[in-house]
What does this fold into?
Amino acid sequence: MQQAMDETLDLPLTRNDRGADRGDSAAASEVLELFLLMLPALFVGSALIEVGVCYAVMRKVLRRMGVAVTALPPFAQWHLPVVFPYLFAFSLIGIYWGSTREIVLLYQVALNGYVIAFLAGLVQGVALLHFLLLRFRVSPFVRALIYVFILVNGVMTQIISWTGLFDMVYDYRRRIRERQ
It folds into this structure.
């Protein structure tokens, strides 16, 4: 894999041969190395997406065949386990220790844990946001705009993920329902 990455980066540059291009090549090399380190978490994420799609398809097929299938709860009611905020915190510590002490395996494991916990927090945060948007009766068009804004804005994605991680611990939806 390293050889393929080196050959790709050694291709002639399409712009020009100034020093900035060599800097771009070094940055691209770092991004590719980081991508390779995160590959296990990306495989797990893609497997979960595939499981979700297969479940949705098989649920429809089995219902047509007359088999009773339990439905997933509505997205606004999804709650993920409390383990993810701890995984997130320990992963941040592992990333720090792995990078400062040059322990590559610790860095890779912590980076993959971080990605998994971040994505779990993002799902939980979007579920919380969906609950709030339904509760305040926001129109579907505005909801779609908000979701697109979150998708294209990295800062909002971080905020939603952190909110989801806090929601796993403090369960804001339960507290909102109790206030009524």
Notes: DSSP finds seven helices and no strands in the chain. The helical segments are 2-9, 19-64, 83-100, 104-135, 140-152, 154-170, 172-179. The mean pLDDT is 87.
